[in-house]
Amino acid sequence: MKKQVVVIGLGRFGTSVCKELNKLGHEVLAIDRDAERVNGLMDYSAHAVVADATDERSLKSLGVRNFDHAIVAIGDNLQSSVLCTLMLKEIGLKKVWVKARDLQHQKILERVGADRVIQPEHDMGIRVAHHMDSEKLIDYIDLSKDYSIVELVATEKTANKTLNQLNVNAKFGCTILAIKRGEDVNIVPLPSDVIQYGDILILIGHREDLKRFEDKSV
Ligand code: ADP
């Protein structure tokens, strides 16, 4: 469904969010107080406007209250970011997602009502470290502190074995949810299905169990 999103702050993060939302077919209002940055987004948003996002009257006159969702991507100016978040919540926006510079910034934003706080550099740093830690790891999603979904490449250890032979559930306590082979995704793998070298296995389980499976089996 098409969403109406206001993106405030058109630095690297805001610009990338804006362009991608536009590509996905959503209606984006892009705001920055720097005219050059706004001009750069003209072709990638439904509306691009020069305004100070800490000025409540400007936000109201732009009709920001009618938007479903706001992204505040002002990272360099803590005061502006906090003030803008507070005002968007006061105006009544249901979903206000905000980029934070660090943990202290994050805590303040949560206090003033941000619905989601993102620390892109911090989060990306963690992801890069995980990828470096394991060359077999393609991607992962943390479901909670303990449970994750991971994508692992099948090596010669698992190749040419059936799921039944691997018996991942009984041996490691985790479950193979799907097997990707090129463009094909087998979402209901059967015990008799054979894994090939280079397949991508999608598993769900406790982090420690997934790690044990990764170390011993792939
Ligand atoms: P990144 O780290 O993603 O590149 P920056 O923090 O450098 O992002 O960029 C923040 C953007 O937010 C800048 O383009 C800046 O002009 C804009 N900005 C800062 N304060 C305000 C404000 N009060 N109103 C509108 N835009 C603002």
From TrEMBL:
Q: Which Pfam families match?
A: TrkA_C, TrkA_N
Q: Which residues form the RCK C-terminal domain?
A: 135-218
Question: InterPro entries from the xrefs?
Answer: NAD(P)-bd_dom_sf, RCK_C, RCK_C_sf, RCK_N, Trk_Ktr_HKT_K-transport
Q: SUPFAM superfamilies annotated for this entry?
A: NAD(P)-binding Rossmann-fold domains, TrkA C-terminal domain-like
* Ranges for domain RCK N-terminal: 2-118
- Protein name, as recorded: TrkA family potassium uptake protein
Organism name: Planococcus shixiaomingii
